[in-house]
User: Fold these one by one.
Assistant:
Number 1:
Amino acid sequence: MPSHPAEGKAPGGTEALYRRFVGPLLSRDDGADAERLSRLTLSTLGQVALRRNWPLVRGTLEGLGAELQRRDPRLEQTLFGCRFANPVGLAAGFDKNGVAAAVWDRFGFGFAELGTVTWYRQGGNPRPRLFRLAAERAALNRMGFNNDGAEAMRRCLERQSLPPAGQRPAVLGINLGKSKLTPLERAPDDYASSLELLAPLADYAVVNVSSPNTPGLRDLQDETLLRRLVERLRRLPGCPPLLVKIAPDLEDDAIDAIARLAYEEGLAGVIAVNTSIDRLGLAERRLTQTGRALAEEAGGLSGRPLRRRALEVLRRLRATAGPALPLIGVGGIDSPETAWERIAAGASLVQLYTGWIYEGPDLVPAILEGLGRQLQFHGLASITDAVGTGLPWR
């Protein structure tokens, strides 16, 4: 599969720099430390976001937008009260504290999901905790919801002087998790504290009950516990559209139960999927950094190996929930074809993370152009018409 399959175009300035300087660092497991590279990138983008109206910075961002944004009315949608300029978003886990919230649209994204954020600031799990599997275009992470806490995120977003919710160039979601020190029985209040504080700044909010890196968190996917949690959050004044993010490792009956719960509780949608504790055929693959096999390592697997299972879960959700419930597909999307595959299977929106890191910033415009070509080929007027059709990539 080519790295950037967008019509064979020569890479633009940003993409050319990425391929020259970042690409080699990502081509080996033992290249630049993955977590340090992410932190450096976010630190830079955070400064850019705060200074985006300075003339030089503004000019640079305008150039970035001209290179990476694609305006196509056929790709616009309105879902759960939010207007999405296009269906491609940045997945949660990269901008944990929302430091670059004001500039994600310049990378071409139609939306960005900030977090995961918890009520209490927490440092996460011991390092090393993020590992690159370069040959497989995958990653293993056991970060453990490291973030500065809900109050710090609120201050960070307020410093960026964002337009009001509903008036932003890219929709902003906030992904909420349970603080590690909060007992499971008090999880609803923990989530509620974060949501109550951040709701005025969110276009939508996500209940993350599927990370494998906080002990006991996935127990909240149990139908009874999840219903209790959702009911607690929906009682909050000004609760934004509420989605839930699920794991790829659920059994079919558990997926069906969540689909029913989403309908009965009036959830805005479901995000499928988080990282996997299944090693997806890579159990004997050894990490260069530790010398141990993946079967011996804790953490969630993301990237290309997750593609098949993520697609299976999405199809199961769509079959059970019917066509009305919006679904967001994430996991192993690293090309226009895989994005179309997820939309044809029932996703209204898709999210990128690991694939975007490996493929570079040109992946977003490549996907948007690819989706537009598929609409034209299949004679569809809009991306909404493609959702759940099962139409093949051509």
Number 2:
Amino acid sequence: MPNSLSKKEIKDIIQWDVKNWKNALSFWEAHFSIKPGMRVLALGERQGGLSLYFAKMGCEVVCTEYKEPLDEAREMHKKYGVSERITYQQMDMRKIDFADQSFDIVVFKSVIGALSSVNDQSQAISEIRRVLKKDGAFLFAENAVASRLHRYMRKKFVNWKDAWRYVSDEEFESWKKLFSKTYSKKTGLVALFGRSEKQRSFLGAVDSLFSPISPKAWRYIYLGVFIR
């Protein structure tokens, strides 16, 4: 599916640091068969990018956000003609307001760091597993702790640095224990340091060459497909 998307569609789906984060789409599709009619819960979707992606795949999507209104997402979905496949709801991922085994897919991108404690993040993962059907998939792309340089640059330049909790490799590994089958990958090396999307695009091209041969601990994006 990613190969059939236009550059504009990919930009609207991924939104920032596109060259690195778009790798999530091909990774997810490589390890889980996304089929029309599947029911998808998309978490942290203020701009609605992943909801757009799954709606274009023919899925039925619940597009959620914790506090912010979803007006921006609604407008984009209307523009792409997929609104009939999407419903909208405010949602706290620590207490998902759906019954057990309600969804074929639960998905998020750069979301769980907004939960500022280990306990809150663990509770969210438990809730995600609870609402997944048997053999359903938790698909995610999330910011990893990465290197000391990444941590320094985030403290220096990221406005929400004090409110965001980056997840360690050890914590990602602990999530795996809740699922029957898991696939994971780390990617991204220097594009994070770009101060504009143009700079991140250039550095993303550099990452495509050097990220695969860099130490895993230095990479800042964690991709996952966890099967219940």
Number 3:
Amino acid sequence: MKRVLIVEDDKDIIELLSIHLTDLDCEISKATDGEQGFDMANDNPYDLIILDLMLPKMDGLEVCRKLRGKEIHTPILMLTARAEEIDKVLGLETGADDYLTKPFSVREFLARVKAIFRRASLTKTNDTESKTLTFGDLHIETTKRKVSIKGNRIELTPKEFDLLLLMARRPGRSYSRDELLDLVWGYEFSGYEHTVNSHINRLRSKIEPDINNLTYILTSWGVGYRFNDEL
């Protein structure tokens, strides 16, 4: 049984989501403001957090930032009534795993939830197969989500880590920006390729010894990006 925390101040939406999540064999916990939601997510293990953007006391973006800052990597599906581009980019770059704009269909909601559960299950399987990846001075501890270079820890955001881990597991394999959006952010996010570019640039600035002579994250011209397979 999956444990799901719903952080939402609209009781009708809470009830609707609870009914359908229960049909997926989920155990539901509920919070109606951001502070309560943060405390519950900080103190208890969940398989998924459904987090509204506009909340009393603490908004969803701040809840997300604080959880990721405490290295709580529970998948987060963010909900909002605002569809502006800046909201989507902020939500995803803060560490949310997926993003759904109200009003949404129950079918789409359930599809997103199932996709998050599938990715989480795949990640756990991969982590049991290989807990540490080493490429010269670069070390990636998959279960602890830690990255270090020459023994010095490198602080990555959740999406930066996910991008690095995805490519590092398959060195030499080129990924298009659309593929990276789909695999890391969870579904096709057409029109937001610049989000991938900005994450790659920040990731490179943190792990590359020489940004003008790349070692780890290479550009596949005309395609996208790949992890160096000659290390």
